[in-house]
Predict the structure of Mitochondrial carrier protein.
Amino acid sequence: MSEEERRNMGSEESSRPIPGITGDIVYKNPLFTMPAILEPYKVGILSYASSMLSTTAGFPLDSIKTRMQTHSYTSALDCFSTTIKTEGVRGLFRGIVAPLISTSMSRSMTVSIYTDAKPYVASVMPEMQLDYISDPETQRFVRNFPVSFISGIISGSIISLFACPFELTKIFQQIVVVVNRDTKVNLSSETLPTKVFDVAGNIVKYEGWSGLYSGYRYHIIRDAFSAGLFYSVYETVKLQLQLKNKESDYFSEEVKARVDALCVPVSGAAAGCLAWATIYPLDTMKSRYQRDVLGNIIRVKMGLPKLDIAPGKLKIPTREMYKGFGPSVTRSICVTMIFFSAFEYLMKNIA
């Protein structure tokens, strides 16, 4: 093969966008072969299963994060101990049904939309001139970041329409006991709506159907930007680590395969941490607005007048807006490490 042919092949390879999430897969000895009728839905099914596992593992930290964003605790440990003391271990898992359904479904849909959107985004983006980079793999890596970022934004924006009502009911369940105590209206535990359908019914009853989208302006910006940042950072870090591993002369092929697998949770942790650190103040504003909506529902149930609340303008992040960040970023790291490890393993072992 001539040098010119090699360059042409390298150019074609570098211009081809990297497939979403997993990269190219060649099945040798798969653990299981999916029925042909389900094969088109493979990404969604496997990401849903992985998300259910990761959501369950990270939910207690998510509950602590929401409580700290919307109420006053001296520390995450104080929030944890107070919740255990007043509500028991069950309090940490209050509201888990909604995210098990919605978060798993939305993450599954997000991954599917992202994977499908990526080749289209790559096809309409203007070609980046990277002649100054000689290595085709490096060119491919550099081109992948903006494609991943825009594909993530598209995916996050679409999914926010589905996810917002479910997340609102989850937050309602997580903090309803605390809000009831703070508003000092003291509804009995039997009167408080704590189940998914009771919560949704109360929101619609007192706030109308639009109440299910309380705080949506924050939600869509958060989901779009975080998804764009999340997927682009995840793929960038993973591809860079795997590229360095591939070029290494110190490891055997067997060791390199193990290092490649380790790159997945490390990249997931990096992406989750950076994405949450960036969008956390916006998430806090959303949670506080939704808390006030919940407070009004409890007041009306007691025959008291509503308080005037309105979504505030986007603000410059302050330290106060990072309350609960520790549990949140810890949860994000755990969840993304578990999710991507499970998802990529299943994708590469189920044909």
